[in-house]
Design goal:
The structure holds 3 protein chains of 3 kinds. Chain A contains 13 helices and no strands. Chain A is globular. By secondary structure, chain A is mainly alpha-helical. Chain B is of the alpha+beta class. Chain B has 2 domains: 223 residues, Rossmann fold (3-Layer(aba) Sandwich); 116 residues, Beta Barrel (OB fold (Dihydrolipoamide Acetyltransferase, E2P)), CATH 2.40.50. In chain B, strand 12 and strand 13 form a beta hairpin. In chain B, helix 2 packs across helix 3 and helix 3 crosses helix 4. By secondary structure, chain C is mainly α. Chain C starts with a helix and ends in a 5-residue tail after the last helix. The chains are: A mainly alpha, B alpha+beta, C mainly alpha.
């Protein structure tokens, strides 16, 4: 079957090659040294920053996306908004990449729209007064949110719609207040979906390369950027250390995705 | 004053008036069914009692207390929904315990009450199960236990059997009635299934287009329907068009057969048309019968329905169905036969709108 | 619904919408500022005049089209075959098609460079043509999750088995069945997958940059590092193309929903 051959050649084998390479020395014998060496130099700090950015953008994406989806699903805003918002989210969630980086540069960069607006009208200088730079940790987080929020809306809206009206009413006649309903019924039902989506958003941010490179060049030391530099010019001085880094990326995103899938199955079982 | 009193209840959704001036008193421990087609306002009344809808006019009192300013969570009402609505994240015991936990009862008391409730619905062995691991009938019994656990003043059942299989529907409705009588709890039951309403109620309210057409015991509703709607909605009924010959003697004709009614015709004139009702099970074939308790006609169809054979015959402009119990010796009438149906005088009802 | 819930709902929605539209507005506004003090299309003029823009953009369009063709050739027969003959394999195939979402693109391309370098058994990166092919294959992999899902959803709405048997009983061979019976029936699904693929490939950066091909994404990044206003104009163009593609998907899916379905 051509599909199997194709996927094997251009997905499985290349990935396996990297994973195996991570456990090999230069002459091909087996070693854990590369993985151990990940603790050296700037690598741990780059993983740490990557994880922090991914967690921050996933958490904020979850919170804001949840609020927006809830506003639409529970009818706080007119019903006709829902369909365009979901369509729009479907589009925007696919929008990582170089143009996105420029959009945020043009908005929050040193001479961006919002930066100038704040400076001219309120005398606030982003960089000086708020300590905000688009090239920093928060800058990247804010940029990632552009595709994280829509992804959250896309995934959580059906889960919110799955909350049956009768659950709320049943809780109410049994004496529960709105807060008790949310704490004892709605939130526990949503929890697997929420946590699962968080894991997915985390993986999504962790693997984003293009936005980061276009936005910060090499000024921010995150894993994808460091790996990119390593592939282009072997800055680590040991090709196998590069494989180990790539392996680390796979492990992180794979774990996040497995959590996502596992929790999703749990959530769907309940909502059957 | 009755335990649950509904006075001049009205409800409009925008321009649509779904409940029009509804009045009723329900006694303590009574089982009352609201019966009617979808959209007749029966569920809306139930939801107003629960507090999910606010009446546009009128008052609801439970045990002498006006419910007007009480939210659903302050009314101490038990409710069972059509789609079970068990909390999917809790097992059976936790579902049943929910209302007690909210009420802040001590743990020992909760455990004892949950145990008692599970015993009542005979599901002690499934306390640890989750809703998705149970059948619909089991889930609905748990929902009943959950509603009853906090000892509500009133139990509301919103078409609780509609989502279930036919067999379970029958057994569960008997179980519901038994538990209701055992606890003596005032119960309002909403259904569109006349058989359900007839079989388990103390009284039935037949709703039509936002009004109560008739309120009465199942026996009254079935045997003495007061309107054409009640007559046609509850059970199968033959509606026969008859022509008044002489209002003074209650003489009418159906086709070319004259009958003198026992019931007075009331204010009609000779030549007017009146509607008469006859239940299919009320008559039997009796060749040679004559007079005011017999009608003859030509058989146009005869269907075997298992326990009964339903035959349709044409009398004048009307078609009359009647049922015969199936027995091995019975020879069903053939199409084209002319047969005579005999009934008792009180079976032929005059339907007044 | 209490008044506070309404206010909170509106606040969340407005915040989110600002979040989406302010950067787009900022981008557009910035792209018009090439001439001091007034808005102008100078940046766009400069971009369109740049032969490199035409070259890289043309290259990416061609790559996108090639990717779509390869994607259709691989995905449609597979999805069809799995539905028809190997339903047990569906979870596995689905799992495989979702892998590109799990394995970061940068890792996949890293593997390519190692596996298909000049000294390997299949030296694809040794020649320009070979690298182009490798890039197209890589894009196909990246687009696989979207393409497969779209086609599989399309196949679900038609009765694959009956259609196949009907065609077979009329004497059609496999190629005819696929090309003239199945494909026309899933055209809307294939189209939406194709537009999404197009949108992804046009702006793609990682694979093209690391395989050193003159594509639009790396060009955009390079210009961004060297010029002031042009990259913003380019980004507006990239956005417009992407949103255009995705609007087309909406259009296609809406059209196919309202069109009467023939059994």
């Amino acid at each position: 079957m051509p599909f199997v051959i194709f996927v094997t050649m251009f997905l499985i084998l290349p990935t396996m090659n990297i994973i195996i390479g991570a456990f090999q020395t230069a002459d091909g014998s087996f070693t854990f040294q590369n993985i151990i060496d990940l603790q050296n130099g700037t690598i741990p700090s780059s993983y740490w920053i990557s994880v922090k950015i991914s967690v921050a953008s996933a958490a904020l994406g979850c919170a804001i996306g949840f609020a927006m989806a809830a506003a639409v699903v529970f009818g706080a805003v007119p019903g006709w908004i829902k369909s365009p918002l979901l369509t729009f989210s479907g589009v925007a969630s696919n929008f990582a990449g170089v143009p996105l980086a420029f959009a945020f540069l043009a908005t929050f960069g040193p001479v961006g729209l919002v930066t100038l607006f704040l400076r001219n009208n309120f005398g606030i200088v982003l960089q000086r007064d708020l300590g905000f730079s688009i090239l920093s940790f928060w800058g990247l987080t804010v940029t990632y949110l552009f595709f994280q929020i829509p992804l959250m809306i896309l995934i959580i809206a059906p889960a919110l719609e799955g909350l049956k009206k009768e659950w709320r009413e049943a809780a109410e006649v049994l004496g529960a207040t709105a807060t008790q309903y949310w704490r004892m019924v709605a939130f526990p039902i949503l929890f697997p979906s929420l946590l699962g989506t968080f894991a997915l958003l985390f993986a999504n941010a962790f693997g984003a390369v293009a936005t980061a490179i276009a936005l910060t060049g090499s000024s921010l030391n995150i894993v994808p950027i460091q790996l990119y530099a390593q592939i282009r010019g072997d800055v680590l001085g040991n090709p196998h250390l590069g494989y180990a880094m790539a392996f680390g990326m796979i492990v992180v995103t794979a774990v996040a995705n497995i959590i996502y899938i596992w929790l999703r199955i749990r959530a769907e079982r309940w909502l059957k | 004053m009755s335990f649950l009193t509904l006075t001049s209840i009205q409800k409009s959704f925008g321009p649509v008036q779904v409940v029009k001036d509804f009045n009723m008193g329900i006694e303590k421990g009574e089982f009352v069914s609201f019966l009617g087609p979808s959209g007749c306002g029966k569920t809306t009344i139930l939801r107003m009692i629960a507090g999910f809808e606010t009446p546009s006019g009128g008052t609801i009192q439970i045990g002498g207390t006006s419910q007007e300013n009480l939210k659903p969570n302050q009314r101490n009402i038990g409710m069972v929904f059509q789609a079970y609505a068990l909390f999917p994240n809790m097992n059976v015991a936790d579902n049943v315990a929910f209302g007690l936990k909210i009420a802040g009862k001590p743990k020992a008391e909760i455990d004892a009450r949950v145990k008692e409730m599970l015993g009542l619905i005979k599901l002690d062995h499934l306390a640890e199960r989750y809703p998705y691991q149970m059948s619909g009938g089991q889930q609905q019994r748990v929902a009943l236990a959950r509603a009853l656990a906090p000892k509500p003043q009133v139990l509301l059942l919103d078409e609780p059997l509609s989502a279930l299989d036919a067999k379970i529907r029958v057994s569960l409705r008997e179980e519901i009635r038994m538990i209701q009588q055992q606890l003596g709890i005032t119960t309002v039951f909403v259904t569109h299934d006349q058989e359900e309403a007839l079989s388990i109620s103390d009284r039935i309210v037949v709703m039509n287009a936002g009004r109560a057409d008739q309120i009465g015991t199942p026996y009254e509703i079935y045997n003495r329907p007061s309107t054409r709607f009640v007559a046609s909605f509850v059970g199968t009924l033959n509606l026969i068009e008859a022509k008044v010959v002489d209002p003074a003697t209650n003489r009418i004709t159906i086709g070319d057969q004259g009958i003198t009614l026992r019931e007075p015709l009331g204010a009609v004139r000779a030549g007017d048309t009146v509607s008469l009702a006859l239940r299919p099970e009320a008559g039997s074939i009796a060749e040679g019968a004559k007079g005011d308790t017999a009608l003859s006609g030509e058989v146009i169809s005869s269907n075997f329905l298992g326990s009964v054979i339903r035959t349709r015959m044409k009398v004048g402009e009307s078609v009359i169905s009647f049922d015969m119990f199936n027995s091995p010796g019975l020879v069903p009438p053939a199409v084209g036969d002319v047969v005579t149906l005999r009934f008792t005088a009180s079976d032929l009802l005059i339907i007044r709108e | 619904m209490s008044i506070w819930a309404r206010i909170a709902g509106w606040a969340a929605l407005i915040f989110g919408l600002l979040y989406f539209f302010v950067p787009l507005g900022g981008l557009f506004e910035f792209s018009l500022k090439a001439r001091r003090g007034v808005y102008s299309l100078d940046a766009y003029a400069s971009v369109f005049a740049d032969p490199q823009f035409q070259q890289t953009f043309g290259y990416s369009v061609i790559m996108a089209l090639v990717t779509i063709v390869i994607g259709i050739l691989i995905v449609v027969p597979t999805a069809y075959w799995v539905r028809l003959k190997m339903p047990w394999a569906r979870p596995y195939v689905e799992f495989l098609t979702l892998m590109p979402l799990v394995i970061p693109a940068i890792v996949i391309v890293f593997g390519y460079i190692r596996l298909y370098n000049t000294s390997s058994w299949l030296p694809l990166t040794g020649s320009v043509m070979g690298t182009n092919i490798l890039l197209a294959f890589g894009y196909t992999i990246l687009a696989l999750p979207y393409m497969y899902r779209a086609v599989d959803t399309g196949l679900r709405t038609i009765d694959v088995a009956t259609l196949t048997e009907a065609a077979q009983s009329l004497g059609a061979g496999w190629a005819t069945i696929l090309g003239r019976v199945i494909l026309p029936n899933v055209i809307p699904a294939v189209l939406s997958g194709a537009f999404l693929t197009f949108a992804i490939v046009i702006g793609e950066f990682t694979l093209a940059a690391l395989l050193d091909r003159p594509a639009f994404g790396p060009y955009l990044q390079r210009v961004g590092a060297n010029k002031a206003y042009e990259p913003f104009a380019l980004s507006v163009i990239a956005f417009a193309i992407t949103w255009g593609c995705l609007a087309l998907i909406q259009l296609v899916s809406r059209f196919s929903k309202t069109a009467p379905r023939k059994a």
